[in-house]
Amino acid sequence: MVSARITVNGKETPLAPDAPHTTVLDFLRERGLTGTKEGCAEGECGACSVLVARPGVNKPTDWVAVNACLLPAAALDGQEVITSEGLATPGADGTPATLHPVQEEMAVRGGSQCGYCTPGFICSMASEYYRPDRCAHEESPDTADAAGTVADKGDPEHGPNGFDLHSLSGNLCRCTGYRPIRDAAYAVGLPTGDDPLAQRRDQSPPEPVATSYTQGDSTFLRPASLDEAVQLLRDRPEAVLVAGSTDYGVEVNIRSRRDNCIVAIDRLPELRELRVESEYIEIGAAVTLTEIERRLDGTVPLLAELFPQFASRLIRNSATLGGNLGTGSPIGDSPPVLLALDASLVLASADGERVVPLADYFTGYRQSVRRPDELIRAVRIPTPLSQVTAFHKIAKRRFDDISSVAVAFAVDIEGGIVRKARIGLGGVAATPIRSLATEAALEGSPWTKETVEAAARVLRGEGTPMSDHRASSLYRSAMLGQSLHKLYAHTTEAVSS
């Protein structure tokens, strides 16, 4: 066994004797850092959030907020973690600590009542506070009135200091109310030059550590390379692949899942590349959704429309496309979008690589053509991209919810004629599916109300929707047809304007 260690609030801490499935949340609390709380154990409340030093998008290092309740502590071997306790500056000679600017604003603006959720909010808020491209003023904005309420300026979901309120979308508060929390977020300024966490962003993040950690009958492995990873899969077919752990962590917490061999692939360099080639865009399977969003910066409009509707920022900071596709869930948000984009998957094994169209990948409920000795290395999106795209997620909440129906469109219209149509569907069959009949009804036809009405009737009959606690089968079918009408309405509005 190789010793595994995590740097927590600047202090190196051994992982032993914790089990490989022990979460970061339990690891921290067992060591007295009880600011990190368990609320839901599913990554939906944010009470457990902490900061992790990750490779940056605009600077060498980003301070990224993640759900400590989902991530195995062993996955942070060699990494740096900051908890809510580590944000304040300790006082000298017994004097009180100096609050972090985020903590200070939460205190003076009444952002905490019972305090249970507050440390999680603080960490998520601190992650946004340190975001390098946040368009904050050089001075702390003086935007509060006498009552301490921040005035709205422009976009209600972005503060006058550039603070993106969606960075707190994964944090819930049951008693304080969100207005004072928003006020605190909109009042923070830029980090000062002597802020050690701000200075840390200019240094490289910790390099991935090859990990072999065993306790009892369970082993956590982090291979050093893709070649080593695929050889592990060949030698140990029982191994479970883990990237962001946003799905696997729920299984561990809620269903008490315990595996003999866990293989982490989230830091493999070969799975962390994002390349824009002449014929396609290749996204590594272990690039997080937040990284994809910021690095592509709207280059793929359909993905840009997907990301804000995919869970919360806390989840997107860890979740990956490879993980979302690897689970094979029929209600995953990314498969319909990638189906509409005509994406293919690069599957790697010890025998080499093969490219599989995503439309041929799913074979049944949570089943696919991927063999046990294979992993998803990358997602390829062919270019040029379609001109007209849209992603419609039908759910009970606007954000951070599981879809009842998901529909993605990618359509090319030339001279008023539909030359190409790709439609991806989720939530209406045992697998994500392409709407082949509707695509055929559209292609070669004029983009008119009559064509859309006829195609919508076909679309309503696609898949095998079922009734459950989220929606009835009739509702799901109706929403399919309605989505096409909505797309047509938006395209005609765009043309007329």
Describe the structure.
It is built from 15 helices and 20 strands. By secondary structure, it is an alpha+beta fold. It folds into 3 domains: 1-139 and 155-208, Beta-grasp domain (Ubiquitin-like (UB roll), Roll), CATH 3.10.20.30; 270-382, Uridine Diphospho-n-acetylenolpyruvylglucosamine Reductase, domain 3 (2-Layer Sandwich), CATH 3.30.465; 389-494, CO dehydrogenase flavoprotein, C-terminal domain (Enolase-like, domain 1, 2-Layer Sandwich). A 5-stranded mixed β-sheet has the order 2-1-5-3-4, with helices on one face. A 5-stranded antiparallel β-sheet has the order 10-11-16-12-13. A 4-stranded mixed β-sheet has the order 6-7-9-8, with no helix packed on it. A hairpin with a 3-residue loop joins strand 10 and strand 11 (280-284). Residues 2-87 form the 2Fe-2S ferredoxin-type domain. Residues 213-386 form the FAD-binding PCMH-type domain. Its EC number is 1.17.1.4.
CATH class of the largest domain: Alpha Beta
Strand content: 15-25%
The major beta sheet can be summarized as: 5 strands, mixed
Helix/strand class:
alpha+beta
CATH fold name of the largest domain, please?
Ubiquitin-like (UB roll)
In DSSP terms (H or I, runs of 4 or more residues), the helix count works out at: 15
Helix content: 25-40%
Spatial separation of the terminal alpha carbons = 66 Å
Secondary structure tally: strands: 20
Strand order of the largest sheet: 2-1-5-3-4
Q: Which spans have pLDDT < 50 for at least 5 consecutive residues?
A: 136-152
Q: Determine the mean pLDDT.
A: 93
Going by CATH, what is the homologous superfamily of the largest domain? Beta-grasp domain
Number of domains: 3
CATH architecture of the largest domain: Roll
Radius of gyration from CA coordinates: 24 Å
Oligomer: single chain
